[in-house]
Specification:
- By secondary structure, this protein is mostly helical.
- The chain folds into 2 domains: about 100 residues, Tetratricopeptide repeat domain (Serine Threonine Protein Phosphatase 5, Tetratricopeptide repeat, Alpha Horseshoe), CATH 1.25.40.10; about 80 residues, Serine Threonine Protein Phosphatase 5, Tetratricopeptide repeat (Alpha Horseshoe), CATH 1.25.40.10.
- Helix content is about 80%, strand content about 0%.
- It has 11 helices and no strands.
- Helix 2 packs antiparallel against helix 3 and helix 8 packs antiparallel against helix 9.
Length: about 200
């Protein structure tokens, strides 16, 4: 009896492996077809091929659908599938970066802000995320909040033009004239005759 149980367990194990291998092969074929259709701009067909093999618990499938719906300018569906991918891989920043594209396309700026904040929570020293978040607050004229994120970006890349420039102007609007002047002069050291830096210096008395 014990031997029979073990035999059944072994049989079940190999059957599961076989089914999984078949599913993987089927999905691989579906992805290949979708890539071919995407290259021909047949996004509806590419989506259909993937959805015929849809698995709610598959990160690659949800990510692929998010991308295809984004290309098809169906931002609502793209956001839906990218969020599914985010739920499946909560420690990953990859799906969050992908999610930003349809959110920006749909001009959901509040959601864009939240997504950048999630990225920074997972990756606090990500220069790009800190810079982009700083830009959001800068254009809202929330300069003190913008400075917090520009400072991180600048500390990571001290000679990056965009980080120096936005740090300088943020300090200018905060009334930190001396800090702004130092940064504008630093820009001119690396980028001689830069028009924006010269304009900023001209405004500081």
């Amino acid at each position: 009896m014990e031997f029979l149980k073990k035999s059944l367990l072994v049989l079940c194990f190999f059957l599961v492996i076989q089914v999984d291998a078949q599913d993987t092969k089927t999905l691989q074929i579906a992805f290949e077809k979708s890539y071919s259709l995407e290259s021909k701009y047949l996004y509806d067909d590419a989506i259909r091929v993937i959805k015929e093999n849809y698995s709610e618990k598959s990160y690659p499938v949800n990510t692929r659908l998010g991308w295809l719906y984004y290309l098809n300018k169906n931002y609502t569906s793209s956001i839906y599938y990218y969020k599914k991918a985010c739920q499946l891989m909560p420690a990953a920043t990859e799906p969050l970066w992908a999610l930003l594209s349809p959110e920006i396309g749909a001009e959901k700026w509040s959601d864009v802000e939240k997504t950048y904040l999630k990225i920074i929570k997972l990756d606090p020293k990500n220069a790009s995320a800190n810079y982009k978040l700083g830009m959001i607050y800068y254009y809202r004229k929330n300069y003190s909040k913008a400075k917090k994120y520009f400072d991180v970006s600048l500390n990571l890349y001290p000679l990056d033009y965009d980080s120096m420039n936005m740090s300088a102007w943020t300090n200018f609007y905060l009334g930190n004239s001396n800090d702004a002047k130092i940064m504008f002069k630093k820009i001119l050291l690396v980028y001689p005759n830069d028009a924006t830096a010269l304009e900023g210096l001209g405004l500081i008395k």
